[in-house]
Structures are given as structure tokens and as C-alpha cells.
Amino acid sequence: MRIILAKSAGFCFGVKRATRMAFDATEEHDHLSSLGPIIHSPQLVRQLEEKGVRVVDEVPPAGDGAVIIRSHGVTRGEMEKIARRQLEVVDATCPFVKKAQEFAAELSADGYHLVLVGEEEHPEVQGIVSYGEEGRVSVVANPEAAEQLPRSSKIGVIAQTTQSFDNFNAIVGVCLRKAKEVRVYNTICDATSVRQQEAKSLAARVDLMLVVGGHNSANTTRLAVICRELQDNTRHIETADDLEPGWLEGVETVGLTAGASTPSWLIEQVVARLETLAGT
Amino acid sequence: MRIILAKSAGFCFGVKRATRMAFDATEEHDHLSSLGPIIHSPQLVRQLEEKGVRVVDEVPPAGDGAVIIRSHGVTRGEMEKIARRQLEVVDATCPFVKKAQEFAAELSADGYHLVLVGEEEHPEVQGIVSYGEEGRVSVVANPEAAEQLPRSSKIGVIAQTTQSFDNFNAIVGVCLRKAKEVRVYNTICDATSVRQQEAKSLAARVDLMLVVGGHNSANTTRLAVICRELQDNTRHIETADDLEPGWLEGVETVGLTAGASTPSWLIEQVVARLETLAGT
Ligand code: F3S
Ligand code: F3S
């Protein structure tokens, strides 16, 4: 039996990097906190807690060790507070998110009305907009909301990194009718679409497709739905224990992918169990 | 009988301005040439010829009087030649076209690959692209052509002033997939769409709609088609002589508009004849 693991299974570049930085920091700092959970994986947050990383909601007081900044960043106000309190910083903001923050600052300083395509409640969005000038920033979730934008002489458009291109494109179209000049930085990260594309092409050519990740993870569930469209024999599992030996009967190739919040060791456990069951 | 003349009938702002500048120039200069016909109206070109304005294809030699630049502009190379030959210039380039030329120069100097939405053969387009850096400019007529654009780090998009917004919008959408940064200046002039909108609302509320302009003028014919959709009783005429008295029977209000290349005296003659026929 052949097992094919998708290259893009599990954590994206930015989350892998943040995780590594956080674990490295536990070796160097005795007193560590993370401003908000580093990523959406409860298992990983627990592992870090065991190594002494406290999750805090607010910037800790002066003298309180080092602060880890999560992959989707924090607000400019929080960054300034950290600097004022002279806390050490382990900045694990994803470079793509950082870029979006920088574009927000640049566009706003250049007099553009800043339009951020995204969900107002998302922490990444709150971080990015905080770099724009107050009163000249709009968060817009869809083209209908964009229709409500005031007319401006110039509009700058950026996106939350996980937005879909089609939504972004449609909103730019509305902005073109709201201002004579529109400047667009496409800050969409392709990690999600690459993972989905790879899962699709894998699902189409295997006998069994496994998708690993929490049943309550929206992006893992979405991944399983996409695979099932091309491969009836698709299974969404949370851990290696969910694997049923009967599934492997008559199966020559197994495809394997995992959601964005699935840690690599969970994926490795599934691979190990598959190998055991296949007797290879 | 009431006659309602559309405010936007006939020449647009830029053509009116160029015409006025050309006639004013005939008072001041003995030796005058226009680099290409000033506007698309043969009647007007003839009138100017009678006042001594020769239409030339190339920049005249040094010492050859003054040169009129038509409303849709000329190329940077021609402008430089005129300067080198120290000819006097009557620059009747429409300010909106000039703006597009300036944006082309600015975007190109700032390192953007310049995309001009328009028709390659159009003189306005040739003028605008000449302000971009050679080898970094593409003229794109439709989204299919835009698909052939090379990937660039940044793309700047502008439009020929008479383009439709929908085509412009669709091409911007394609550009968003070709570059991470896209800067757009909407240089579309709304003279055409305003004229069409006004004609529509007029056609719907009169008993007879008259559209004045050459039968071989594409934009006048289009105007008549648009009016006919709302008013069966629409007539496309070239001059006041085409008016048939029978058309006015039982008519209480007459609407009147004219294509972009119809001179105002042709429109005035129609109004005068209407008044005579109605005995007002
Ligand atoms: S956190 Fe991940 S999804 Fe993209 S923006 Fe950074 S690589
Ligand atoms: S020539 Fe006329 S159509 Fe617009 S760009 Fe100038 S007013």
C-alpha cells in the first residue's frame, strides 16, 4: 500500500514559523507569555503551557519577562504598550500579515481611504486596521457592504490574508466606482487555496482519502467536503485512533491531508498507524 | 409645442473647448496648422480650413507658424519635435486626456507595468502610451487580451477616456491576478454616458424624440437606438431639412439631442425650423 502525504497538509508557513519561534523562546526565557493564543490548535497551546508559556489577554506589566506575538499579529496600540513597558518581544507575526500592516500604514499615510476586505471581529483584521489613520479606515466583508462606502478621492484596498480572491476582486470593482484612484495590494495568502488544490488533485487519484483535523475546525471540514466531491471514499478523522482497519481492504493508495490547525505530530501518528495496519 | 433640448447634446466639454481655442487662434495667428483633424466633424474642419487652418499629418518645419494640438492629444515624440523646432503651440488637448497622459508618465516612472484599456489604433491611445516607458506598456482592449499580460510585480491601469466602465472593471480584475500591487486611475470621461442617460430620460417623457447627427456617426446611431427603446417615435436626422412637418401632428413636446460630433449650429438650425413649423 502506498501512502501519499500532501505537502501542504496541516500548518502553513506562518504558523509553522510561529510555533518554532515559541518553542525556541521557551529555551531562552524563563518568564514567557503569549498575547492571545499563538494559533487555533488547543493541543499546541497546551504543549506550550506545559513549557511555561502563559496565554494572556492584555499586555503584561513592566518587568514581566518576554511576550510572544502570535502569527496573525496584534494592534499598533499593543505593540506601543509593549515598547513603553520595555518588555522583550518574540515577534512571531507572519511576514505576510506584517506586510499587510505595513501597506495599511503606507496607504493611510499617503492619504488613501483604507478599505480592508475581511471580517471585523477577526484579530488579524483588528491588528491590520490599527495601522491606518483613525476615521479613514473601513472594514468591508462583501460587495454589498462596499456599496455603503463614502466617495473618496483615493481608496487603498488590502485584504485579510485568508480572504477569497473572488470576494476581493468584487470589492475592488465597487471601489472603482467610489474613487478616481484606487490602489490595491493583494495581500491574500495562497496557503489555503494551495492546500485545497493539492487535496483535490490527490483525492482524484487515490483509493482512500484521509483528512485529519478537529470536527469543529471549519477549514478541515471544508477540506473534507472538497475531497468528497472527487472521491466518495473520503474520511474525516481527528486522530490515528479513528482509523478503522476495514477501510484499507482492497486499497492500494491512500491520500492524506490535514487542516490548517492540525499539528504535524497528529499527522505523523496517522501515517505510522497506516503503516502498521498495512504491515509495511 | 414645447421643445426640450438636452443639455449634453452635441460636443462634449473637451471638444467645445478645442473648437473655441482653434477659432480664437485664427484671430491671432496668420500661419496655422492642426496636427491631425481637430475633431471628427467634417463641417467643422471645413469651416476652420476656410479660416486658414491647414490639417497636417506631421509636425511642420521650423518657422512654419503655430500648431494646434487636437482634443485627444498627440504623442510625446511629436510634442518634443514641436518644442525643438520652436513652433508656437495652441494646446487644445482635453484636460481629461492630458491627465491620462500624466498618469501614464507617473506610473511608468514609478516602475509600474502600464496597462492602457483601449483600442491600439486610436490616436488618443497612441498619445497616452507614448508617455510610458517603452517595453513596459500594454494596450489591452478586453479581458481576454489582459489574460495574455506577463506577470509583473506591479501594474498601473488607466483607460482611454471613452471606454465603458464594465470593460475597464473586468480588465482590472484580470490584472489583480497578474500582480501583487495594482494601481488604478479611472480616467474614463463620463461625457458619453451622461449624454446617453439624459437622452433616455428625455425620450421617455416626450411625444417625439429627435436625434441630430451623421448617419455614418457610430455614436449618433447608438444614441438613436437607445432613444427608440423608450420612445417608438424617435427620428434620426442629419440636418434641419430632414424634418417632415407631418411628424409634428398631435405632438405637444419634442425632445432633442445630438451626437458627439454634431456642431451646435446644426442643432440650432433644427430648433429654429421646429419653431417655424410649430408657428411659435
Ligand atoms: S499565517 Fe499562514 S495562512 Fe498565510 S498569511 Fe501567514 S502563511
Ligand atoms: S474630449 Fe470630450 S469625451 Fe471627455 S475626455 Fe475630453 S470631455
From TrEMBL, chains A, B:
Superkingdom of origin: Bacteria
The name this protein goes by in its record: 4-hydroxy-3-methylbut-2-enyl diphosphate reductase
List of residues binding isopentenyl diphosphate: H40, H72, H122, S217, N219, S261
Binding site for dimethylallyl diphosphate: H40, H72, H122, S217, N219, S261
Function (record text): Catalyzes the conversion of 1-hydroxy-2-methyl-2-(E)-butenyl 4-diphosphate (HMBPP) into a mixture of isopentenyl diphosphate (IPP) and dimethylallyl diphosphate (DMAPP). Acts in the terminal step of the DOXP/MEP pathway for isoprenoid precursor biosynthesis.
InterPro entries according to UniProt: LytB/IspH
Cofactor: [4Fe-4S] cluster
NCBIfam families: ispH_lytB
GO biological process entries: dimethylallyl diphosphate biosynthetic process; isopentenyl diphosphate biosynthetic process, methylerythritol 4-phosphate pathway; terpenoid biosynthetic process
PANTHER family: 4-HYDROXY-3-METHYLBUT-2-ENYL DIPHOSPHATE REDUCTASE (PTHR30426:SF0)
Active site, UniProt feature: E124 (proton donor)
A Pfam family hit: LYTB
UniProt pathway annotation: Isoprenoid biosynthesis; isopentenyl diphosphate biosynthesis via DXP pathway; isopentenyl diphosphate from 1-deoxy-D-xylulose 5-phosphate: step 6/6; Isoprenoid biosynthesis; dimethylallyl diphosphate biosynthesis; dimethylallyl diphosphate from (2E)-4-hydroxy-3-methylbutenyl diphosphate: step 1/1
Entry GO MF terms: 4 iron, 4 sulfur cluster binding; 4-hydroxy-3-methylbut-2-enyl diphosphate reductase activity; metal ion binding
Membership in a protein family: Belongs to the IspH family.
Catalysed reactions, as listed in the record: isopentenyl diphosphate + 2 oxidized [2Fe-2S]-[ferredoxin] + H2O = (2E)-4-hydroxy-3-methylbut-2-enyl diphosphate + 2 reduced [2Fe-2S]-[ferredoxin] + 2 H(+); dimethylallyl diphosphate + 2 oxidized [2Fe-2S]-[ferredoxin] + H2O = (2E)-4-hydroxy-3-methylbut-2-enyl diphosphate + 2 reduced [2Fe-2S]-[ferredoxin] + 2 H(+)
Entry binding sites for [4Fe-4S] cluster: C12, C94, C189
Cofactor, how bound (note): Binds 1 [4Fe-4S] cluster per subunit.
UniProt KW keywords: 4Fe-4S, Iron, Iron-sulfur, Isoprene biosynthesis, Metal-binding, Oxidoreductase
Gene expressing this chain: ispH
Binding, (2E)-4-hydroxy-3-methylbut-2-enyl diphosphate: H40, H72, H122, T161, S217, N219, S261
EC number: 1.17.7.4
Source organism (scientific name): Geothermobacter hydrogeniphilus
